[in-house]
Amino acid sequence: MRVVLFLGAILYGWIGLGLLNAQQRPVSFEFRHVQEEDGLSFNFISCFLHDRDGFLWVGTFDGLNRYDGNHFTTFKYLRTNQNGLLNNAVHDLCEDLDGNIWMAMEGGIGWYGKKTRQFRYISSMNGRALGSCNNILCDRNGDIWFTSDRQGLFRYLISPGTIQAFPYDPVHDPLGTTTRIVKNGLLLDPHQNGLWIADGRGLRYFDIGSRQFTDSRHNPRALPIFNQHHTSALTLDGTERLIFSDNIDHRIVVYNLHTQQLERTVTPVSRAQRDVFDIATIFVDRQHNLWTSSWNHVVFYIEARSYQCTELTHTNAKNTSIAADFFWAGWQHPDGTIWLGTVNGISYTNPERAFYDVYDLGTLFSELVDERGIISFLEDADGSWWLGTSIRGLLHYFPQTNQLDVYRLPDGTPKYPYGLPITGLQAYGNELYIGTQNALFVFDKSRKTFSGLPLPSVIREKTIYLRNFRLQHDSLWVFGESKQTFCYQLTQKKWTNYPILSPSKDPRFRVRFSLIDQKGNLWLEVYPEGLAWFSKQNGQFTLVDVPQGTPYEQTITSFSEDKKGSFWMASGGYGLIRYDPYKKQVSRWTENEGLSYDYCESVLADRSGTIWIGAHNKFSVFSTAKNRFLNFTLPLNQSNIEYQNYLFPLRNGHILSAQKGYLVELKPEKINHPPTKEKVLISSMILPDTTYLLPGSGDGIELAATDNTFSIQFSVLAQLQETPYRYLYKLEGYDNNWLEAITPGSISYGKLPGGNYAFQVKAVDINGVETPVSTLAIHIDTLFYKSIWFWALIALLVLGLLYRSIRSKAYQTAKLHHLNLQATRLERDKAEIHYQNLINHLNPHFLFNSLTSLNSLILTKPKEASLFLRKLSAIYRYILQNKDKEVISLANELAFARNYVELQKSRFEDGLLVSFTIDPQLLERQIVPVTIQNLIENAIKHNTIEGENPLIIQVYTEAESLIVMNTLQRKLFVETSNKQGLASLKSLYHYLSKREVEVNETATHFTVIVPLL
Length: 1013
Known about the structure:
Blueprint: E1 2-6, E2 16-20, E3 32-34, E4 45-50, E5 56-60, E6 63-67, E7 72-75, E8 90-95, E9 101-105, E10 108-113, E11 118-122, E12 124-125, E13 128-129, E14 133-138, E15 144-148, E16 152-157, E17 162-166, E18 181-188, E19 194-199, E20 202-207, E21 212-214, E22 234-237, E23 241-246, E24 251-256, E25 261-266, E26 279-284, E27 290-294, E28 299-302, E29 309-312, E30 327-332, E31 338-342, E32 345-349, E33 356-360, E34 374-379, E35 385-389, E36 394-398, E37 403-407, E38 424-428, E39 431-435, E40 440-444, E41 449-453, H1 457-462, E42 466-472, E43 475-480, E44 484-489, E45 494-501, E46 510-516, E47 522-527, E48 530-535, E49 540-543, E50 556-561, E51 567-571, E52 575-580, E53 585-589, E54 602-605, E55 611-615, E56 618-623, E57 628-633, E58 646-649, E59 655-659, E60 662-666, E61 681-687, E62 690-693, E63 701-703, E64 710-715, E65 726-732, E66 739-740, E67 746-749, E68 755-764, E69 774-780, H2 788-841, H3 844-860, H4 862-881, E70 888-889, H5 890-908, E71 912-917, E72 926-927, H6 931-942, E73 951-957, E74 961-967, ...
Parallel strand pairs: 45-49, 63-69, 71-73
Antiparallel strand pairs: 1-2, 3-32, 4-5, 5-6, 6-7, 8-9, 9-10, 10-11, 12-13, 14-15, 15-16, 16-17, 18-19, 19-20, 20-21, 22-23, 23-24, 24-25, 26-27, 27-28, 28-29, 30-31, 31-32, 33-60, 34-35, 35-36, 36-37, 38-39, 39-40, 40-41, 42-43, 43-44, 44-45, 46-47, 47-48, 48-49, 50-51, 51-52, 52-53, 54-55, ...
Helix pairs in contact: 2-7, 3-4, 4-5, 5-6
């Protein structure tokens, strides 16, 4: 930088100070970053792999990651998991022919099966540990080749599952321990069946068919590529060129594989005077540009056509710089984005798709960052830019050469050493007209001198604060806090005043902005009146009929016209405002309609009619045709809001944004990127207790009936923070229409019924172009009580129950009829038994015999006669009391029977022997009344009773039955028997019990077994 002092007899006696930095503007890259706070397992990146399903695998020194553009899935070593990662340090990655992911790791190699979702690994060969493996690739036959740091080259044959070792010197060094193969040092030859290998001694070629090495010691064809040199990085440029580092001669070598000749060499030189070699990484993009990183922490971009080297340096104060000064892996996305795996996360940039350039004037003139910076702008005919600042004078910047000149204004003060803020810049011929709040200056561009332009007396007398300046042909308009406007005729060099016809009494009345519309009319934005236009015929400014009293009147910050003649205004807090002067309509857009930020600072319509809105480093681009906003944020001044975003049109159709010490050239023609060919990756399904990693190959997923609540994660891998995608999704079988994801990259469903579904998702860019639809088939088991077979079974069961109910009803009806019939018979049998009992006890023989016995006792034994009479009366009382009862307790029946037996013994004395043996536990069981008495009476009636041959009757219980057994000594004639007593008893018990009354007769005994109820 050199300082040029302009001395001379200048009006106001001031000195112009020029700051010159005449250097070629370097290639500029703006990097974005993906780091641990975004979900990456570790910031030290070692390798990339873009698999066939579209996912990016990222190997780090602390875990393996799968990335879909929005979500990371991390794998780490777990000591208790034999199917997990072998080691957290993953050095290299490749994919085999079946889609499995292979890893070279600290301690061996391994692979991840996408279908099994499990890891397998190999850590030794023939009992020898493989050690640190740093390169791995899959050849055309599907075999895996890998290198061990100190043990040489290996091949793993997948089919037999065996490992082969290929030492460089089988005789003197069979284990290969004296040669170190470097990371990024193994390549598959694109044409022949061989491998390129880089190690500390130089470059080697291994012929797979002959198993022979070609190197500096064995070089039959004397190819110069195998001259002894230390090689620490190796890569391919397509299929034509092999590129490697020669650390001895300090050069990067480009070798043509077809001609087998050295094509060229490059020796990058660091601006910081650091040694560039040894080179650790060389990455070649699809445009053949080189990206290199050295062990001395120097990073270069080497342009393919000119091989011009640009050093890329990490700067802590600049978050758009590369994340670190060392990277170990590179990858290029199909959309052209370059991904660099650094020691501080992933840095990515896409110069092809960048729609803006950043000019960092703060590095040329550091004072700019100490205040509000650049506030006015004028583009010169030679393509240079004149810039007005808030307190740093007049700047002249040449964007092609990155040169900046600085000039002090004559009205400098201790507070404003470079002069008052420049709020207006207008060009007329070779002169610049510079407006400040209370003065006008003319700057001669050839002589670099300032002169003053006298203001009208009314401005000086009333100290009118000047706010806006506009050049119209040869008229310089000046507007401020007054109802008078002032026009300076440049040719006539005189001032003319024009009124603004307004009834407003507001002391804050002022003209804030002005513009000249497409028809050449001069418009003003006036507070608090709205809009006014200049009538040449009437020589005055006339207010237009704009709705008054709107809340945003006080907050207008910018004023612009689109190609259709509508006026656009930025509002501080009320969003974007449009006034259509033809329809006299006002429209407004806020964050509710998609605007990035309601506090807008500037607005400008580009040539296509698209509206650009700025608010500090936040931008919205509004398509009036699609009524849609595109929002993005520039990575500038994140921690500083001490400035205002101004937008200025450039002659090339671009828009220049002033961002404090930065100028950003926005390129509207590049804002709409060509549609990406990428598909949406459906990466994972998250259930309450587990996560399913989806392979992305279209395979479906089977879920249990209870797993019907889940979230699905998805994303496009392309990094488009400036133009983010919208995601539309639909679950076939559940959703009727496409829905927009509220949270980009994730949706949730809850309590879905069982069945077959198809989750579909697509991304939509700012132009409305859709990506292909990605689909995931989902089957959810149906709960058994919701399944078709279950309801079919229920239907069969209901029909069965209905049929059974009908049959049961018919059966119950028949049974009821039968029971009614049985009840009739029972009543008849009961009546017959009771009648028989009554006959038995009213039998004249029984009564006669009883009375005769009573009479004899009265004469001889009065006391016994009295007892006899009480027992006789008890018998008849019992009969009368229980004649209507169906059953009675066995205890009561036994008491009655004993009384009856006592009466009979008084008659037959020793000729009748009756015994009772009853289980006490059965005394509460039920029996038909007078059953025992009938059976005893029946035995007495049908058998002879003599003193020498007594009738023995035994009454006892057994197996819940009452048994009455008597000796059989049958009478020849029984005059009172109707032979129906036992039959009636059987019939009665048939209705009362499931067991029948049994009657058994032998040669010696007659037995009746009555079931106890």
